[in-house]
Amino acid sequence: xxxxxxxxxxxxxxxxxxxxxxxxxxxxxxxxxxxxxxxxxxxxxxxxxxxxxxxxxxxxxxxxxxxxxxxxxxxxxxxxxxxxxxxxxxxxxxxxxxxxxxxxxxxxxxxxxxxxxxxxxxxxxxxxxxxxxxxxxxxxxxxxxxxxxxxxxxxxxxxxxxxxxxxxxxxxxxxxxxxxxxxxxxxxxxxxxxxxxxxxxxxxxxxxxxxxxxxxxxxxxxxxxxxxxxxxxxxxxxxxxxxxxxxxxxxxxxxxxxxxxxxxxxxxxxxxxxxxxxxxxxxxxxxxxxxxxxxxxxxxxxxxxxxxxxxxxxxxxxxxxxxxxxxxxxxxx
Amino acid sequence: xxxxxxxxxxxxxxxxxxxxxxxxxxxxxxxxxxxxxxxxxxxxxxxxxxxxxxxxxxxxxxxxxxxxxxxxxxxxxxxxxxxxxxxxxxxxxxxxxxxxxxxxxxxxxxxxxxxxxxxxxxxxxxxxxxxxxxxxxxxxxxxxxxxxxxxxxxxxxxxxxxxxxxxxxxxxxxxxxxxxxxxxxxxxxxxxxxxxxxxxxxxxxxxxxxxxxxxxxxxxxxxxxxxxxxxxxxxxxxxxxxxxxxxxxxxxxxxxxxxxxxxxxxxxxxxxxxxxxxxxxxxxxx
Lengths: 333, 286
Known about the structure:
The complex is a heterodimer. Chain A is an all-alpha fold. Chain A has helices at residues 3-27, 30-54, 62-79, 84-106, 111-130, 155-177, 180-190, 192-197, 202-228, 238-251, 258-272, 279-293, 301-311, 323-332, and strands at residues 142-143, 230-231. In chain A, helix 3 (62-79) packs antiparallel against helix 4 (84-106) and helix 3 (62-79) packs parallel to helix 5 (111-130). Chain A starts with a helix and ends with a helix.
């Protein structure tokens, strides 16, 4: 596959899948709402895929950053009469700024401690939203947020607007991972000290990406509140963050499309599996199996090799590449 | 005022004693296997909920046995990663235990429902210069101390404890001197799930629980384990105690609801500022 084809393959898959499902929605209209939910999760999960899958930096605060964006826009539009077209700016900037400020001290922590700190941050945000009194609507939340600009409340138009943003993020993600900065991010994941020795400004690069990820989550929160018209502390919370991590790990943390696949799997499973209380059993079992069989998720080099074995495809020389080369490829990917 | 503070401190220590029985097993699994067993909260909830459903006197035994069985399941998953994938990436196993936690929480929800379960706590209290301390709080503290002493004895004196410590220092070196490292690590999962099960039984007596406590207990265990910046049962014990005291005191003095955020704020401050010296409360030389 040529370099250009590789760059545009992921966005093309997104477009084709979106068009197919939206057409199927003509027969089954609930699919439009399903596509909105998948798009929303995908928008929060994609940047986590970037910072965790490519950068090795785990975050359990994505759902909470989305909540900050949603609340920021809800407060500005319902309390101060700002139109949603303008409230999108603080809805993106506030979580990004918050993430950038806290990123510098916490991103030096080991993976598990970082997970705990981001989880704790999510808890603090949730408590603040619950106890914010009239300002945040307390446990009840805020209602009456105006609809999205241009597209209003029409589910098809909302889904198209949301997926256009998802597509833009996918295009930027695809280009980023193949840029010098993207390779630097991978270098940080493989060996942080070596990356620093090679001239990568690790704290700044990670903090910037962390902030961008939070900003995109804030944008998802903005979509959420203006399409549903309502936000409460339980709408986007720590549990959402855990689900987002599940989607990224299941779909494939190193693949551009992995988080979207994970979001689709999670949403369809929630919609079609009977008995909501047993969903955790299903998701837990599936995740253990996927991690055992294909540690990098469904879209991963291991899974691709299994697929190639099934369909009998080999590389151009007619045989599999040596193990060392395959491992190096995996490390880079 | 002083009497009140004394009372809150005593309650915090009693709460910290339950938290310690969650954090210590997680830390023991961590140092022995390099894996944070995220499903620790699940063992506690299953044990506590079953104890409440079955009732006294057999409930706690049934609950702890169920926790041991779940620990065996987690140990089996751990072994599966090493057998099938020759896995060296501990984070994957951590994610697998996260998946196990999701499954346990869902299993509890689907079989026992959303009701808050509790067992009748020990009646009565003692009055220490005006500070009222319940017998249940003293019982929890006593059980926690007994378990910690038993754990210390096991680690220092028994063959299994020595094997666990050898595996913690270097699993490869332990293998070379003939320690059955994988079996030891499997038994560590089971044994520590049993301790978390005891914590669950104490929690259902002291504070009650629902299926949603799974996540809360896991967070508490995790926080206690890493709060003082060093892996090991002793730092985990002190970390959990600190969390218990902070929770009880902030519950008493802060407006309703805000206290829930204080332990999280403490974790962020301690870890982000890096203020806690790595050797504090660890028993290690500075």
